[in-house]
Input
Amino acid sequence: MTKEGLFFISDYRDVTCEPGRDPAYWILKELDKNDKFKVYSTANKVVDSSCFKNIEFLTLGYKGDIQIQKPGYNYRIYKAYKKVKDEVKIIHHCEKFQVGKGYNLIPLLSDLSDNPLIIGPVHFPHIVFENDYLVGTSGINRMFKKFGFRNKKLLNMVFKILFKKTIAKADKVIAPNQQVKKELENYISSKKIEIINYGVDLSLYKKYEYKAEGNNFQILSPSMAIERKGIEYLLEAIYIVKRHFPEVKLYLLSEGYKVADYKKIVKKLNIGENVIFCGRLKQDKYLELLSNCRMMCQPTLSDSYGWTVLDAMCLGVPVVTTEKCGCPDLFENGDIGIRVRPKDSYSLADAILKLFNDFDLCKKLSKDGLRKREDYDYKKIAPKYLKLYEKYI
Output
């Protein structure tokens, strides 16, 4: 039986045989069991590929910060494709691809009239804040980066043109939810768009259960310590909540340049006994701690997708987050928590107090989350991609 060549542009950049959050690892594992395709997958470097028996990894070896928008990294992908293009029937861009910014040199520089092109999952870009962008820079380098940041309008216009040209060449585009699909319909026919959820390794979450009781007033917030995550608004909310529940505890899983600022806020608001700085925890410790908390709180100012909100849903832990969490689909067909305006400490405090005062509501939100998590199991999601590939054989 002749196998069809599949060129897979992977966001599983460092192959280690450790599962990643994004779908590429799970799709590759599903392809590895399939005998219909000869798979050529990009990888920036291969550390351990022993868990893959039938995948040929094409090493890119890109040095420096990897961003799919960077021409150098994109050109490495194009060169890898050129090596195997005569063996390839289907191309799937499964690397990060943002609405209005994503592009790929393969359809822009090649004739793909006989090669179906699949792109996605596509997601919204998050807002980049200047302070986050400049962190770790100084001197002349900082000056140039600041100039580039404040004059990025022209660069964004170029990305927008490349995005339109790339997406127009696609035969199928994957959206993770209805909101992304609706935005993509401004650029391509809805007939070209298919919704496939993001997912998780559900077996990890089934090891734990939501253990909070009515007298549990613990909150977990896993977040990078950067401006975009809005943690200062949560700290101000804890100050308000403390008036009603002096025993409130916030476990802050956070690393980054703003940790020192957070500690100053904690001291100023006199909530040192209520906020525990945990740094970064290993996955099992993180999930165990989360399952023991009354709720998760994610006060983000902008996220492309709320992966930690998905974590909470899969554990049955109620969520307080903002309208900018990037995951409105998780709140459909049964709520899993409360969404509030961003940059609003009072709204955050009101939502936290509502869940502290109504444990029956917490139990309902937990039950809805556990019911919905079955739709986000990668064991169900990854095979959907194979069915899509098979349509083009």
Remarks:
- The chain has two domains: 4-199+377-390, 203-375.
